[in-house]
Amino acid sequence: MEHGCNGSGGGHCGCASSTPSSTSSAPMGDLPAIPEVPAFQPVGEAGAEVARINNTPLHAPGQRPPERELRQRACTELLRQAAQREGLLGADDAAGDDGVISERASQAIEQLLEQSLHLPEPGEDACRRHFDANPARFAQGERVRLRHVLFAVTPGVDVRALTQRAEALLIELRCADDAGLRFAEAARQWSNCPSGQHGGELGWLGRSDCAPEFARDVFASQEIGVLPRLVHSRFGLHVVEVCAREAGVLPDWQQARPAVAQALHQQTWVSALHQYLQLLAGQSEVVGVRIAAADSPLVQ
C-alpha cells in the first residue's frame, strides 16, 4: 500500500508507493487493490444501523466508517464470501467488524480473482491506438516538485466538515501573496502527513512515486502553483501546490509498447472486477451500503 512522503518521513499520505509486505492481517480493500465502483445504486436498506453483507456486519454498531471506506469493505466482504463458496477459504474464516480480514482471506481473494477474471491480452492495433491518443502518459522522466496539506479521512471523521475545512484552506492559499509562507504554516498546522513538519514539502515525484488516483490529478495538466481543486486520494483530501514541473521524454512506439500493453491490461482488469462485484452484489443480501448490482453474469 502507498505510504511515505519521498524523504519527508513515514505516514499515509497517498504520495509515494512501495511494495506491500506480508502481514498477518490486512484492511478490507487493501489486498488486492479494489477500485471504487463508479456508479452506485441503492441496494437493501440504506438506513440500517449496521451495514452488512449476507448478515456479516461491516462495522461495529455506532461506528459507521466514511461511505467510501464502507463500500470498500463491502466489496472485499463480497469477495471473501465468494472465495469461501468456491472452496478457496475455510468456513471457519471470519471477518471482523473493524475492516480487517485475515492473510488467508487476502490470498484466497487473489486466487478467486485469478480464476474468475479471464482477461484477453491487448492486441497490437489497440495498443497503438491507445499510444497515439495518449502519448504524454508514457513520457519517461516526467517529474513534479510538490508540497501538500493532507486532511486525512479516518473512521468516524465528519467528512462534510473536513471537506469544508479543506476547501476553505484551498481558497485561502490560492489567494495568498506571500511567496508561499502561508502554505508552509498551514501544512505545519493542519497536515496529517509527516511532511507537514517540513512545510508540506514532498520533493520531486514521478508518476510511479504516487498513488494512482493522486498521480492522475497532479499529472493531468501543466498547472503550476496551488491547484484550483482538492486532490482526492484513498487517504484523504489534499491541498496541493506544484512548485515546478519537468517534462518527460516521449519514447518511440517500440520503447513504449510494454507500458502501453500493461496500461490497457490494467484498464481491462478494473472493468472486469467492477462487473464481477456487480454480479456478486446481485446474488447477495446487501444492507446499509450502496453498491452497484447485476442479476446476470457480466464477466466472460
From TrEMBL:
EC number(s) from the headed UniProt entry: 5.2.1.8
Gene3D superfamilies (alphabetical): 3.10.50.40
GO molecular function: peptidyl-prolyl cis-trans isomerase activity
Entry keyword set: Isomerase, Rotamase
Pfam families xrefs: Rotamase
Region feature (Disordered): 1-36
Biased composition (Gly residues): 1-13
Domain of life: Bacteria
Keyword Metal-binding: no
UniProt biased composition (Low complexity): 14-27
Presence of the UniProt keyword Phosphoprotein in the record: no
Catalyzed reactions per annotation: [protein]-peptidylproline (omega=180) = [protein]-peptidylproline (omega=0)
Domain annotation PpiC: ranges: 141-244
PROSITE patterns: PPIC_PPIASE_1, PPIC_PPIASE_2
Matches recorded under PANTHER family: PEPTIDYL-PROLYL CIS-TRANS ISOMERASE HP_0175-RELATED, PEPTIDYLPROLYL ISOMERASE
Entry similarity comment: Belongs to the PpiC/parvulin rotamase family.
Protein name per its UniProtKB record: peptidylprolyl isomerase
